[in-house]
Write a structure and sequence with these properties.
two-stranded antiparallel sheet; Tautomerase (chains A, B, C, D, E, F); two-stranded parallel sheet; 2 helices; isomerase activity (chains A, B, C, D, E, F); Macrophage Migration Inhibitory Factor; Tautomerase/MIF_sf (chains A, B, C, D, E, F); alpha+beta; 4-OT (chains A, B, C, D, E, F); homohexamer; elongated; 4-OT-like_dom (chains A, B, C, D, E, F)
């Protein structure tokens, strides 16, 4: 009975893409660990850009800094 | 000082029902483990239906599949 | 299909107490929100004392500070 | 930069199986959402059987109850 | 490659304050554990007041109860 | 009443370093958001190297791949 939580930045993932993630992760757990899909939960969290940090910066500022340094 | 996180699908839980969950979980931790309610946190996350998967499907599609297979 | 995560400090909770937490939380979700127990997951994490902080201190140091200040 | 957390019961998943989960989830995020693998984290938590509940029971008791009721 | 999740009640934290949290936590992990900021993620969750409980009450009711008891 | 969860790979962080993380994060929340330290929780999870993936690989294999490609 696995529980999987996927956190991604909110950048327009569609319901169809989310359904693909749910199916893909569940199939993976069935294939690798023989888990029962009926008791495999997948929860997706979309996180606003201003709420996700990397490199000490909110993600948009971080991406800008990468571009300007290259 | 327990921390409890409750994730449910977003299907109209009312503030009164959430307050009942908060009270119920806190009372349980006091009763079973003698925890101090003043340092017991309960955080409720309501998850959009399209963001919750089970059986390899988003939850609404999963419920539909159960009905049609019965 | 709720998912509940309970984090407590590791201070000797017994399997019987954990079973009581699992049953209590599940019953609560059935009673308040009419959830299906068969798809209600409860995961308990016991956290080592040195890994839990409150008041800016690891929990044991925090408890000592409360006693000495009273 | 996704973050994925996979929780499974501790039942002997091998390092090779864990590596397969890590690869599979990362590939999925690359394929479906065009994410950068270098900033895709996957964290696996193995949860002791007594710490995972379903159907209001610790998971072993739950499995036993399913068998005896069938 | 640390992952940090900060949960706070939704009470008007500004993007600038969030950026300060992201920077502060990342700097801390660099300083204390020599972590690489480029692989340090910080995710902030703002939780609605009705979804956060303490002392067995939603947080607003709890604050009111503290005032009236003092 | 913030709740902060810090996940790091298990690579020998000492109790003193953990205490420094707890103090640093708590001070940050007090300074930036005027939070009350007495209701600020910090939970540190050390994750085994084989349970943390990045770049589609367990972290040790990933580090090795970076070295050999440079």
């Amino acid at each position: 009975m696995p529980y999987v939580n996927i956190k991604i930045t909110r950048e327009g993932a569609t319901p169809a893409q989310k359904a693909e993630l749910i199916k893909g992760v569940t199939d993976l757990l069935v294939r690798v660990l023989d888990k029962n899909p009926a008791t495999t939960f997948v929860v997706i969290d979309e996180v606003a850009m201003e709420d996700w940090g990397v490199g000490g910066l909110p993600v948009e500022a971080y991406r800008t800094s990468l571009k300007s340094s290259s």
